[in-house]
Amino acid sequence: MEISDLLQPEAVISGLKANSKKQALQELARHAARITGGDDRKILEILLEHERLGSTGVGNGIAIPHVKFAECKKIYGVFARLDKGIDFAAIDEQPVDLIFLLLAPEDAGADHLKALARISRLLRDATICEKLRGADTADGLYMLLIQSEAQAA
User: Is 50 assigned a catalytic role?
Assistant: First the structure.
């Protein structure tokens, strides 16, 4: 499973403005709804429910919210670089400014886990994250994500 299988250029947001975790998830849900054809309120509800079980803030300014969503026909990703870091209740208690949302069909099983592992490996690379934080445009972010994937192969 490659990042290019999960993420399309229109699913990348540069300079997302959010002052809270909930506001960031609302914006991501709205964007995800446009891409998947799903309902943004349902996506937000599922995301918030998952976050109540435990934060998806994995540390180093990164969050990887991931949920299964019945209306999904395939696995979708949405990536956002925030204008400024927000409290995401991350495990290291640091603000989050890079978010990779993963939506998968209910029956995705192992594919969901493979996609999550792929995203996690990519965003564990400090050099890649530094470049993502320095990118000015959504197209630039997308190219960095895809190129980083190719270089890692």
Answer: no
pLDDT of residue 5: 87
The pLDDT value given to residue 108: 84
Catalytic member of 31, 50, 66, 112: 66
The arrangement of secondary structure in 3-152, i.e. its CATH architecture, is 3-Layer(aba) Sandwich (3.40)
SS (H, E, C) the chain: CCHHHHCCHHHEEEEECCCCHHHHHHHHHHHHHHHHCCCHHHHHHHHHHHHHHCCCEEECCEECCEEECCCCCCCEEEEEEEEEEECCCCCCCCCEEEEEEEEECCCCCHHHHHHHHHHHHHHCCHHHHHHHHHCCCHHHHHHHHHHHHHHHC
Task: Report mean pLDDT in 10-residue bins for the chain, 153 residues.
Answer: 88 95 96 92 95 93 92 92 95 96 90 90 93 94 83 52
Cut 0.90: pTM above it: yes
